# Entry
Amino acid sequence: MPRYVNFTLMGKHRWGLVVDGGVLELTSSPYDGGPLAVEGEDEGGVRGDVLPWDLLVLDPPARPTKVVAVGRNYAEHAAELGNDVPAEPLLFIKPPSCLIGHDAAIVYPTGQTELVHHEGELALVIGRRARHVAEADADRYILGYTVMNDVTARDLQRKDVQFTRAKSFDTFGPLGPWVDTDFAPADQRIRVHVNGELRQDSTLDKMVFQPRFLVAYVSRIMTLEPGDVITTGTPSGVGPLLPGDTVEVSIAGLGALRNAVVAVSGS
Ligand code: MG
# Structure
């Protein structure tokens, strides 16, 4: 199960392959569109010794030109916010500037919002340029899957016609820890814990629009570039985050994404 990370070591961003006990540095990005770097492992696709996890700062495992998000993609979540399930995917964009990696801090925008919510989601990452892709071919364009927390200022989302402000604060896009190229979404459990307390608990088969359909649908609207992310919506149970909280989004067989929430005065 190849799992790719992006990490910072001694001030430099690097790509890596998850192995027993840590990470091996890759000699090229897994997003180059051709064969993945790891396939050339025997010819030198990796270098150096295994780097232990505690040496590494994890960055988001993709460098997207855009994060395309899907709203109301689980019926129970649409209902809890008083919405119907849309007949077509409800799309919005989160800017790449909001992304942070596993264990980085979500900064609470004190003074600008009074209701920040977690939204645990399955995200897919594009591996090659996709335009007008057929649903049956979509897997060829998906590099793999990762975990996202679509952090949302719910009060601003309700107040604004557009979702942009509510969804776009810096650090409102935790993504990671890695991209898993073998994960196949089916009926795996997706859960969110806040300070150890279970908040969201569902299964991926409850998504109204499934990942392959979403790749096809979005690719008819905009060209998807290697590294672009589609985050597939959140199940029911969304709720507040406060400074001092730790939030963990986990998907069985894929991984767990953990982030603390901090207050920065004057932010
Ligand atoms: Mg969402």
User: Anything to note?
Assistant: The first strand starts at residue 3 and ends at 9. The pocket of magnesium ion is lined by residues 69, 119, 121, 150, 233-234 (CB under 6 Å).
